[in-house]
Amino acid sequence: MTNLDLRKLLGTDDADPGCDAAGELMDSFCELVAHGEPVSYRYTEFVTHMANCTACREDMEGLLAALRQQAKPGTR
């Protein structure tokens, strides 16, 4: 087992705000990321939750993909 596998299994030492709190921040976080803003340091608890929660991470990745698609010229 690698350190990454172990971290995913056990989570991190950082505070994890949970799914509800992460959901409230997801739109803001994804908007900033889609615009290329460095946000990880401003959203440390959110990033911790994304590392620990597969369901929320999949939602975030889907939202980021949609925002990036929308930002392409000629798309709506």
Task: Give a structural overview.
The protein has helices at 3-10, 19-34, 44-52, 54-71. The radius of gyration is 14 Å and the shape is globular. The termini are far apart. Helix 2 (19-34) packs across helix 3 (44-52), helix 2 (19-34) packs parallel to helix 4 and helix 3 (44-52) packs across helix 4 (54-71). It has a domain at 19-71. It has 76 residues and is an all-alpha fold. The chain has four helices and no strands.
Total beta strands: 0
Task: Tell me the fraction of residues in β-strands, as a range.
Answer: under 5%
Which sequence of SSEs, written as H and E, runs from N to C? HHHH
What is the averaged pLDDT score?
A: 83
Q: Compute the gyration radius: what is it?
A: 14 Å
Q: Counting H and I runs of at least 4 residues, what is the number of helices?
A: 4
What shape does the CA trace take? Answer: globular
Structural class: mainly alpha
